[in-house]
Amino acid sequence: MSNVDLLGRRNFIKGMGAAAGIAMAAPAMAVSEKADGVKWDKEVEVLIIGSGFAGLAAAIEATRQGAKDVHIFEKMSYFGGNSAINGGLFAAPGTPMQKKEGVEDSVDRMVSDQLKSGRGIADEALLRHVASHAVEALQMTMDAGAEFHPYLQQLGGHSVARTYQTTVSCGAGITQPLYKECKKLGVHTHNRSKFEGFLVGEKGEVVGVKMRENYHFGEDQPGKVLKIRAKRGVIMATGGFAQNVDLRMAQDPTLTSEVGCTNAPGATGEGMYEMFRLGAIPVHLAHIQSGPWASPDEGGFGYVSNYSIYNFPHSMAINRLTGKRFMNEIADRKTRADAELACRDEKGNALPPILITSYKDSKKHPNTKKVIKYNVGWKFDTIEELAKHFDVPLKPLKAQIEEYNGYVKSGEDKQFGKNMTKAKGKYIEAPFTVVRLWPKVHYCQGGVQVNTKAEVKDSFTGKSIPGLYAAGEVCGGIHGVSRLGSCSIPECMVMGMTAARSIMKA
Amino acid sequence: MKKVNIVLALVLGGLVSLSAQAIEQRAWHKEVIGKDCKVCHDNGIKQFPSDQACLQCHDVDDLAEQTARSEEDKWQNPHNNLHYGKDLPCQECHGEHESKKPLCSNCHTFKFDKHKE
């Protein structure tokens, strides 16, 4: 289908990962120590580890709350973490754009959608806290210069359209402005800085960290380890562990290295481990989410993911073996990923399903041009051409289109109960654009337990660990079994801001 | 250009070459830098060069101009890209003594024809 070299650099990275794994297992392993009698190399006021949405938001908010000496440490050579390479989708209830588009929404409604997808084990208090402050966080991104498409999107599992997306259709449309804002505010940023453990005071409080300088990810290079005192405390914004194949397979053995991943290579979870060692409570580690919008024709998140996210509401996903639909195209992520993985040929081999969209509708999103240009999506003038290209039985496919168009007309999907609001008037008609779908590991719902003050609870004492705060994907249990799309950015931003407020009050 | 001349002057000025070991080196670097490892290895020979090392001679604004793409694809410019702007350290995509693929190829299929792996 496509002779694109998808795995070139990925395999290369995998090799590096293996080497890094060995290096990490060496006896000089990171571990927390008593700070008693330690000679400090450096002293800072607020110490933030990780430079994604959560870390950047925490730095800006801490400065606004009066902190004078805020430092962000990032293990990679570049800033932004996984936040710099995702879809840039931001859900919030009660926004100006919802008002403009006449969408009725509320904190309650957003929380209720998320609880449903969480399948009974999400943390309602945290979801409510995030939803209540989501507009405020969205405002922070705009104040820093982030720009958004002039329309809302309705993502899978959301009962209304409430999702903003950056004009560049990427999280970098937020991390870049936030990073520049940090620079403007005088936040100190340090790249190639690898966190190597906490330094703990007499009462078990976090008083500082060990930080390796001049760190080159995946390479064995001895940088100097500094002991840094954090006067107000440490905010852990270190992200998920989707790129740590051993750890994710320990939780879910199906997530082998053969399964694609949308994450930045640095999403390996050491910060989280270190908090567990300190006593933090692990929550929901086995709930690792795959993105149902990803493509097997490119690496990572690529161009297709956003193309699919935008187009799912007014598109048909088709099983190539049967020529029929097989899922509600805007069900929650887990429902769709599971349905896609069940698409197999007669021998049981993976047969990535296709997403069919009318070109007149898909072309409204900037990524459509990109997917066609870079050969990860295709345009067809007739249904016959399309069916031939993907080897789909023509007759059932034609019948399915007719049936689906009936649902577009009636507003009721009798096959899969899809919410047809955003499909109104958008019949499936030639010319078509098509992408292939196959899930990729995307997000870790699990992590350390936090409360609505972003404090990290100790499993032995049941109390918050003094001096320690966590925000973003490194935290667990908030979303339950399946996180809804566009709910991570508000969570990262709000909890980053929350951590900053807590640390400044403590 | 001025910086190149400075380095050139340093080299011609007789900095001692440390090692005659055969090691991969770009031809054009050989001419300018010669065999003085320390010109790049500013953190010591056994360490990777700092992220400032390449910038002694190369200017990121100039590079961004040279690798600019059409308006439609402007954010695919490796030296001023969507995800990291102009801040991506050179060594992410370029290795003097080993081959490297561009960071972009983790997720994207677009090509950089002139990129020397």
UniProtKB/TrEMBL annotation, chain A:
Gene Ontology MF: a single term: FMN binding
Main location: other
Highest taxon of the lineage: Bacteria
Subcellular location: Cell envelope
Pfam name, any one: FAD_binding_2
Domain FAD-dependent oxidoreductase 2 FAD-binding stretches: 46-489
Transmembrane stretches, start-end: none
Regions annotated as coiled coil: none
Keywords attached to this entry: FAD, Flavoprotein, Oxidoreductase, Signal
Signal peptide range: 1-30
Cellular component annotations (GO), alphabetically ordered: cell envelope
InterPro entries from the UniProt entry: FAD-dep_OxRdtase_2_FAD-bd (IPR003953), FAD-oxidoreductase_2 (IPR050315), FAD/NAD-bd_sf (IPR036188), Flavocytochrome_c (IPR010960), Succ_DH/fumarate_Rdtase_cat_sf (IPR027477), TAT_signal (IPR006311)
Cofactor needs: FAD
Family membership: Belongs to the FAD-dependent oxidoreductase 2 family. FRD/SDH subfamily.
Protein's name according to its UniProt entry: Flavocytochrome c
Organism of origin: Shewanella insulae
UniProtKB/TrEMBL annotation, chain B:
Domain Tetrahaem cytochrome: 33-109
Signal peptide: 1-22
Domain of life the protein comes from: Bacteria
UniProt keyword Transport, yes or no: yes
Xref: InterPro entries: Multihaem_cyt_sf (IPR036280), Tetrahaem_cytochrome (IPR012286)
Primary location group: periplasm
SUPFAM superfamilies linked to this entry: Multiheme cytochromes (SSF48695)
Molecular function terms from GO: metal ion binding
Subcellular localization(s) per the UniProt record: Periplasm
CC annotations in GO: periplasmic space
Keywords from the named record: Electron transport, Heme, Iron, Metal-binding, Periplasm, Signal, Transport
Cofactor(s) required, per the database record: heme c
This protein's name: Cytochrome C
